[in-house]
Amino acid sequence: MKTNRRRSENTSTPCQGQFETFYNDHYRAISRYVARRIPASSFDGVVAATFVVAWRKFATAPNPSLAWLYRIASFEVARERELLGRQPKTADLNDLDLIDTTPLEDVLDVSKAFSQLTESDAELLRLVYWENLSRNEIADVLGLSVNAVNVRYHRALDRVSGAVNRLASTARADQPTNRNPKEKP
Description:
The chain has 185 residues and is an all-alpha fold. The protein contains 8 helices and no strands. It folds into 2 domains: 12-87, RNA polymerase sigma factor, region 2, helix turn helix motif (Rna Polymerase Sigma Factor, Chain: A), CATH 1.10.1740.10; 92-175, Winged helix-like DNA-binding domain superfamily/Winged helix DNA-binding domain (Arc Repressor Mutant, subunit A, Orthogonal Bundle).
């Protein structure tokens, strides 16, 4: 009598309780991560696909963690963007916790500057500032060494700083002066 080899060999399925705890602990973080990167119409499918892949790999993963889950989500986001045929053109800042003392003009300048970054620079800064990951975790998510993450981080900061400065100087140059035209300087 033939038996199904797959079923008999599949003894490494994760304990349902362990995965449920893992899911409950990380669902909100992954949801925010995905929501910042793709259109709302694709959100549910990408989050679900992320956790399906995580479920399949959970028992064999050496150390399932949030960084490991972000890496899975990054592949699912990339796959969805490819299916949609578009890359993000602007940076949505609607999920940031801004304090009341931040002038709106500064937030808009940062948003414009952020949208001028390459996708890899923007993603690195999102992982640092929006996801609050450590450099080690970011290295795991991006598949890089910690040293490479540090180098790319500082370069991305320089680029976004330069973009903010250029936007600020352009805005200052575009502002009309308050002098009376009949007055001589």
